[in-house]
Predict the structure.
Amino acid sequence: MPDKLYPTNYTRQTTPDILLPKANFYRTEFFQQSCKRERNGQTMNILYLLHPKNTVEFLYDDDTFEKGYNCLRNSSYTAIPVIDRDGVYVGTVSEGDFLRAIMDDHLFSAEEMGDCVVGDYIRKGWNPPIKVTAQLDELVMQVMDQNFLPVVDDRGCFAGIITRRDIIKHYYDKYSKMQETAGTEWN
């Protein structure tokens, strides 16, 4: 099934919901055209900033509460995307969600945590995903309230994340380049 939304230089991996660039992606015509549009003041495709699914932490909605809690506790993250077994993005669970669950549901032992699943503690509507077809300028307002933006394909399958840091760095680099071109210093 050909996808019109994805450039031909992308390849599907073994699972249908993972889209990763080929090794020579940065030398491809698609990437070069995106950069050219960016230099000409047009919007940029967000795939340039994407951290693919296979490089980020995520949980399944049917993982035990204990597994989710330990995953978040042992990582440096404050929130983690949650998907179902078909790869569809379900939501994001945060440290606060786990703390509320522990206090409200009195989940103080590993046995009690093992009886609950992560999907029961997702706040609906929090950290909504963006489509892979979105443009970078559409993300700025959304990323102000979130540490990362989950990215989904046209089927709603989780493709990866874009972090606030990546967007800020992109605009910082763009501004630095403009300042350099204009021959002025940062004030």
Q: What stands out?
A: The chain has one domain: 10-179. DSSP finds six helices and nine strands in the chain. The two ends are 52 Å apart (CA to CA). Residues 164-182 form the longest helix (19 residues).
